Input
Amino acid sequence: MLRELTLGQYYPADSIVHLLDPRTKLFGTMVFIASLFIADNIWGYLIATAVLAAVIRLTQVPVRFILRGLKAIVILLLISVSFNLFLTPGEAIFQLWIFKITKEGVRLASFMAVRLIYLVIGSSLMTLTTTPNQLTDGLEKGLGCLKAVKIPVHEIAMMMSIALRFIPILVEETDKIMKAQMARGADFETGNLIQKAKAMVPLLVPLFISAFRRATDLAMAMEARCYRGGEGRTKMKPLRYSQRDHDAYMIFALYFVVMIASRVYLLSLIHI
Output
């Protein structure tokens, strides 16, 4: 399951989404995430579905590869859906002992599941179409206004980029350690919750040691190259907006307005 995680991976392709400025993709991702919390009816989620499907088509990333990343959130998805399904008060449609499913709970659980899935897919599309270096530059440029209040924008952007870059590396390292421990007789599948937690100790200890070692090696390599970020540092490929970026901003703004309008219009119909 760990190998199914797609967040932090880059999928090389020659698509129009890959060619967009990273600031444009970051803005589009934020707009999409905000729109998911604005959507409160079936029409809003249908619009979000159509837009997400169009973006996936434009990225040229295989749908199977994108959906593969959802396997990592199955447990979180089930917990979220279960809480909303059984704990939401309202008109009961099914009841067994202390468990009661309400009409409002089914609606809320369905929307929550779709929202969580779309959040993961939308975030994955950004990392799949943006290299870590581009993402660092985009974050630094996009958050440049925060430098006025003495916030270390470059350091924050660098930490986020390194964290995303380390996700697939640590996943692969975890898989190797798990296979090595299973070859020595370790069992990660059977037993109760406490036994499974104890079985994870031989996995977590070498993983943390490996992570600290990689972080130390990276820090020493950056220091040996006299790395200095922030002001005065030149870039091999400076970010520049093109016409397609301006067009993308217009599309994002139009999409956000349509999502707000769909919610406002439905609320007005309810009040009428």
About this structure: The chain has a mean pLDDT of 81. The chain has two domains: 1-130+241-272, 152-240. The first strand starts at residue 92 and ends at 96.
